[in-house]
Amino acid sequence: MDFSKVMQERRSVKKYDQNVKMTKEKIEKIIEIASLSPSAWNLQQWHFLIVTDEDKKQLLQRCAWNQPKVSEASASIVVLGDLLAYERAGEVAEEWAQKSYVPSDGKKGLIDSIYNFYEDIQTQRDEAIRGASLAAMSLMLTAKDMGYATCPMIGFDPEAIRKEFSIPDRYVPALMITLGKGEETRERASRRSPKEIITYETF
Ligand SMILES: Cc1cc2nc3c(=O)[nH]c(=O)nc-3n(C[C@H](O)[C@H](O)[C@H](O)COP(=O)(O)O)c2cc1C
């Protein structure tokens, strides 16, 4: 699909055809493409908890203000941000040296920079949410391109999800996404104009 058409036609879809079950392969293809998203130092802070089992979707729905789309969609995905993604600094440095992004004697400097940057917990959290959110947007656009609908969601109790789905402490739930065959055409709500949202050069 033409990219601007994907952007124009992507919507937050609340109703899904419950007869359409997406295959694992299709879902994984969407995730694979979404993971081409950029991230600071290519640390790829995202992780996807994919829920397709009917009982587990019901459980997830109860953690998400009981929004019916969570169980009606083919899959509901909790997009997690990894607070400890910076611990992959060594792998990043290794690959970057191999690909000559940095000289081979620059590996230690790169690793030190990454660890220094992620020293404080606020930065770790900001980056986890930022990375996961970029991947989440890519996931939604990729799904649209492949003929599927999504809805991003913040209406959930992150601690309930953590407990019910045994999410390790290193991950923070950034947002949820329902994914499936959409069954809805609602007129889109308007957007603020470029004039309202742009400031050139400085405030
Ligand atoms: C971070 C975020 C959280 C959202 N949370 C919910 C939610 O919990 N439930 C819901 O039905 N829609 C949710 N939405 C969907 C928005 O209402 C929707 O994106 C917005 O109204 C614009 O509509 P459109 O995406 O169809 O253009 C959320 C969207 C975002 C980006």
TrEMBL record:
Enzyme Commission (EC) number: 1.7.1.-
Task: List the GO molecular function terms.
Answer: oxidoreductase activity
Keyword Oxidoreductase set for record = yes
Pfam families in UniProt? Nitroreductase
Supply the alphabetized keyword list. Oxidoreductase
| Nitroreductase domain mapped to chain residues | 8-181
Q: Which family does it belong to?
A: Belongs to the nitroreductase family.
| Name of this protein | Nitroreductase family protein
